[in-house]
Amino acid sequence: MGIVIAIIIFGLIVTVHEFGHFICAKLSGIKVLEFSVGMGPKLLQKQKGETKYSLRLLPLGGYCAMEGEDATNSDPRSFRNAKLWKRMVVLVAGAGMNFVLGFVAIMIYVCMMDGVPTTTVKDFSRTEENGVTTYYAESYDTGLEKGDKIVSIDGTNIYSFLDFNYVFYNMHEHEGHEVIVKRNGEKIKLDDVSFGVKDANRKFVDFAIIYKNKNPLTVLQGTGGQFMSMTHIIGLSLKQLVSGEVEKEEVSGPVGVVSTINKTAKESENVKDGIMNLLYMMSLISINVGIFNLLPIPGLDGGRLLFCFIEFVRRKPIKPEHEGYVHLAGMVLLFGIMIFATYNDIVTLITGGKNG
Fold first, then answer.
1. What integer pLDDT is reported at residue 164 of this predicted model?
2. Which stretches of the chain drop beneath a pLDDT of 70?
3. Which residues fall within 8 angstroms of residue 310, CB to CB, at 6 or more apart?
């Protein structure tokens, strides 16, 4: 069941992405030849007007085929003959729909929470004995106070509690850190703040945060904060990947993601937790797909956008065949990375994570 759910989530994310291209192309007057959900052999196909609608065997993909994407075409409604701004809108729309899906999934997730988490300190780890309260939180001893809204830690912006998880997971214990807080409406910089001992999941546990009651405003604020956090964390992770800070064994592909979703579904304690965990995973993957597709890599939407910017600067397009060669090379590179990531996933599954 977990694998089926994972495939459904993947299919939804890809379909939403391609639908973004499709609907903007239609609204822009660009001729759409085929809109396909899935890849490989077709299971169902229906022609409606000038567009074919297909359902294909492999659910981990899809496409929106437009007239004249990679070649000169005399059709006035071809992609290349559309105005530059229309082409750019169509290219951005796929990632845009992934961001919308991610935002909606986070909003449902927040609505299912008991309260809306903030980044404001509520209290510190403490013991009470004979009416005497003793704090043992290192952050309390090194400058943090109740009511402080944490703005950043060591230069990393804190948009929601998700940023705490990321920052603390990668933080060393007992070291001094620069923390900027908003206290009594004023931003204050605290030097040499340290945080307490990590638990089994490498999370610091020496302070608690305030949870607000749910209403339309707090839900929207909480959703926006978590959306910003996910976007921020994905950006930092991509930076680490490019700089080589991520080990090759940590690179994962579709098989690994499906395995993670499957594990998440199976290990959830109850139905509510299962739904919330899957919503979290879906939002993270959807936003990730959106950001990745906007990278200026040939073969991706971002690579095509780059050629649009070059055309804007040059005041004339690059020859379609030359651009096509570049995108083909990019696709070969991406397929190579995908094969490598899939190999890593399979080795990890076989060895139980010990893929040296």
1. 87
2. 1-2, 127-128, 131-136, 172-174, 197-205, 244-256, 344-345, 348-349, 351-356
3. 318
Percent of the chain with pLDDT over 70: 86
Residues 6 or more apart whose CB falls under 8 angstroms from that of 311 comprise 84, 317, 318
Single-letter code of the amino acid located at 169: Y
Largest pairwise CA distance in the chain: 87
Match 């190579």 to its residue by tokens: 336
Report CA 298 to chain centroid distance, whole Å. 20
Question: What is the C-alpha to C-alpha distance for residues 1 and 7, in angstroms, rounded to an integer?
Answer: 10
Distance CA(24)–CA(44), nearest Å, equals: 24
Q: Whole-model pTM?
A: 0.85
Q: What whole-number distance in Å separates Cα of residue 312 and Cα of residue 354?
A: 49
DSSP codes joined into one string, 216-243: HHHHHHHHHHHHHHHHHHHHHHHHHHHH
Q: CB-based contacts of 290: which residues, under 8 Å, 6+ apart?
A: 17, 94, 95, 96, 97, 98, 99, 102
DSSP assignment, residue 204?
Answer: B
